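Researcher: Here's my situation. A collaborator sent me these components and asked whether they could plausibly form a single complex. I don't have experimental data yet, so a predicted model of the whole assembly would be a useful starting point for our discussion.
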Amino acid sequence: MWMQKKWFKLFIWFVTASFFFAVGAILISMFRFGPTEQEAMSFMMGMMKAMETSLMGLSMQVKEDANVQRLLYESVQFAFPLLAISIAGGVYVRCRRKV
Amino acid sequence: MKFDFILHWLWALVFSILALSGIAMAGAKYGWVMQYDIATADIVHRLAAVVYVLLTLIVILYEIIRILRRDKTLKPWLVFGPSGYGLFTFITTLIFIITGAVIWLFMDSNHAATAFTLWIHEKLTYLAAASVIWHIYMKSHALKWPKNKERKAR
């Protein structure tokens, strides 16, 4: 029923076009000449910026901080059993229900 | 409203975001896709990856519950399946998640592992993107715009 709605059709067209753009971008980038020196510089600058301002840099800082590492380790000790109990409980409740 | 239908389209949207942001980081030749804004591409890619992993968990749990309840109703929209494109999606998804996790966790500690998994992650992206185009071609009837019956009746 949703598939017949116009706004949903528009969504499908949008998602489909994005995949065609992705494949187009791969093919164009793969078979063209280059990269030029300017492009390589832009890419390196982007990478450097990512190291400072993005999660890429943040994750590296986290790995170097001993306190954060200990906190993460202890959180994981709690998180995994809780996660396992929640999943088991959820599956049990879902299976016991008739509807 | 069908749960598997919603999952399918959420999946498609998240995969599209992952593909576009990932391509931008694949190398200097590909950076133009996001105007060399690698920082934004990195944030978008990691956030979408978290949603991707969660969606995978939800689909797997949904299948486990269906098996436990002996639910044999056909779910044509379900992302994973025992054969065909569903199986391909399942295998590629697991490889994407494992290689992605290795890249994320060992980027600055184990360079050999990161380089190897990055190579697999990148090449698999090209294969998956090509397969999605084939999938769209096979299901192209979904792209047909609905006909306005009222106007036609007049």
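Model: Some features of this prediction you could bring to your collaborator: Chain A has a mean pLDDT of 85. Chain A touches chain B through 47 residues (CB under 8 Å).
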